[in-house]
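Risk mitigation, structural track. In case the binding assays with P-hydroxybenzoic acid fail to produce interpretable data, a predicted complex structure has been prepared as a fallback.
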Amino acid sequence: MKSLKYALAAAALLIAVPAAQAQTVKIGLLLTFSGPAASLGDLMKKSVDLYVKQHEKDLPPGTKVEIVVRDETGPNPETTKRLAQELITRERVNFLAGFTYTPNAMAVAPLATEAKVPMIVMNAGTSAIVRQSPYIARTSFTMWQSGYPLGQWAAKQQGIKKGYTAVADYAPGHDIENSFKRGFTEAGGEMIGEVRMPVLAPDYTPFMQRIKDAKPDVLCVFVPAGKQATALMKAYMDLGMAQAGIKLIGPGDITPDEELPNMGDIPSGIITTMHHYSAAGNRPANKAFVDSWKAAYGADSSPGFMAVGAWDGMAAIYHAIKEQKGKIDPDKTMELLKGWKNPNSPRGPITIDADTRDIVQNEYLRRLDRVGGKLANVEVETIEQVRDPWVRFNPPK
Ligand code: PHB
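Fallback model:
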């Protein structure tokens, strides 16, 4: 009897050892791969794949990473919530990541809290998102990080008097409207109009025509990056708004690096944007990133800010995996993410703020210019280590 007990115990040990050594960390990746904004998911997934390939060797011995991909299908909170639920209960993912659009991230936040699954926001940019769950950390940006300093710059440095905003009518658009307005008017500018446009409008001409007639000195626009940005640029150019003396400015979403080759013949120097990343950035870490991107996806392909949000999101996840030697505890993970720094992101130094779990990063003022005959967001000024200004104006209750 005794020897049978020992034999069973020994057998259990034999089975248990290899199982304990080989462990898989599962990441549920929710991105948009279909509909009018399908190119965005493709860009971010490519970045995740490149990161995984380059950093496989950094994982603790016996640890594997499995990416389980699902299609948000656009700004579609119901679908994203259902998919996240399935990733949590059926796939038992250790992380939820991705989130192209704000409404999708908002819909999933309560699930992250309930199931205690760390949720890494790699794109969505509305300030309020990180407050929706203690299990959220963000590696993308906030709209206020670019909109507020852009408003200040326009009024203070450019001496521009009359401003107008045109934004996609949902939360990140409202954040740009409010942040630009606040920065611009605090620095002495005057708002003469604002318009909200459908989120995925096929054509912006009617909106731009109205704005042209109102004759502002500057127009600050937000549309979600991708094909929307190209459609916006087409309306601005076709209506001759630059010639009419209306400067176009906005967050980098209106000139995403990967869309620039599709934007046609935009003259140098007429469009200025504020953002945290440009593929044309001179940092060695960025050059290495862009070179490896081109080697993997072709010389004409370019990463943009969404690719970098995904890249740094993976870096944050890998940090948590390495520190825990592959055994993921959600609360320990959040502790590890709070205050995490990467001095060498392609975008420059970044930190996940320990209190807000939101990203702190440089903002670059960029002029859309031609470099080697191709359009590029050329960085001309740097504002170092910007915290989300929204938090200052909306302290936690
Ligand atoms: C968002 O929904 O938060 C969002 C989407 C696309 C962008 C920026 C923000 O370019």
